[in-house]
Amino acid sequence: MAKTGVFESDPMVMTKATELKKELQRLVRNIVDDEDYRTETIDQARETLFALKELKMKRRSLSLKLRETVLCPEEFKCPLSKELMRDPVVLSTGQTYDRPFIQKWLKAGNRTCPLTQQVLSHTILTPNLLIREMISQWCESQGLELPDLAQHVNEEGITEADRDHFLSLLEKLSLTLPEQKDAARELRLLTKKMPSFRALFGESLEAIPQLLRPLSELKSRSSIYPDLQEDIITTLLNLSIHDSNKKLVAETPMVIPLLMEALMSGTIETRTNAAAALFTLSALDSNKTLIGKSGALKPLIDLLEEGHPLAMKDVASAIFNLCIIP
Asked: Are 124 and 194 in the same domain?
């Protein structure tokens, strides 16, 4: 017999959600298939989508309230949220937290352990598989449902498999040259196709320095490998597209100097993408000032004067953006 518990969905709510989804499908199909669709159809689709979102939020809120009625063992609660942990991870100090809450703590600029106040040696979060299994067993004994980590996806669409693969690629960037090239190429492709991989770089202050390591450790411009440089600079461009990354990318110490270096060396695609990255980052006024003070205008103007058709638009856009701030 299947167990039931506080996490079981309300049949009436599920029925309502199904009806809303069917109505949304019908409206969207009308918009896609009929070239002469009415603007009212768009409004109806928007209202249906909002109703579906509201229903989802109510279900989530109800689940949280029901969860709090269960006498959860203290060791299974996140020290920050005081709730049952869904994705327990270990901080460098050895303390365990629920991933979304410790990530929020770190993204706020904190670099200490919330419990011990120790300064963190790094901000890599390691899954606590033992606690995860103990929580899973306890939930089963209570008739509660805990999502399978392999299927669990957060708001950015990131799975645990994505995160593990991402970390393995960053590690390869500190290994041999062939491994660095393979990892850089794959990160370039993943950050182009999958917004979730752009978001992953925002989870740790070490991620971007790890990406840049193959370039930042070079002794001279003559030792740069053009294909490796192109892939890393293009990955930076892809990251800068993600709004929540713009500040983090620009304020990472090595980013702007390496973008300026790329403006003066490498393939024309590398130089163009470096200019495009500066243009994208300069969408924030604080970044405009940071980029302007770094002296980036001169290499941008030099590249503009060379007149490469591929680079002209991105370079001119970057220069224009930087000139908005006196």
From this structure: no
